[in-house]
Design brief:
Layout (H helix, E strand, L loop, with lengths): L1 E4 H6 L1 H11 L3 E5 L2 E6 L30 H7 L1
Parallel strand pairs: 1-2
Antiparallel strand pairs: 2-3
Length: 77
Amino acid sequence: MKTMGISQFKTHALKILDQVAKTHEVIVITKRGKPLAQIIPYRTFDITPKPGRLSDALVFEKDVISPLGEDMWDACK
């Protein structure tokens, strides 16, 4: 991870952004030695749903009333 001062980034911003896009290197912009921003390359994410992706994450109950009992279920309404 590379760091650079904000004044240097301001002077060469377009060149630095092209470099990040080409090399996929992360650059941290600092102001008075403290991190201010992080320049990261853009990535596209595949957000199309895939069958079975969440199949193990969800639990389906057939009867949600009986674990509480009829009386408790009415009280929770």
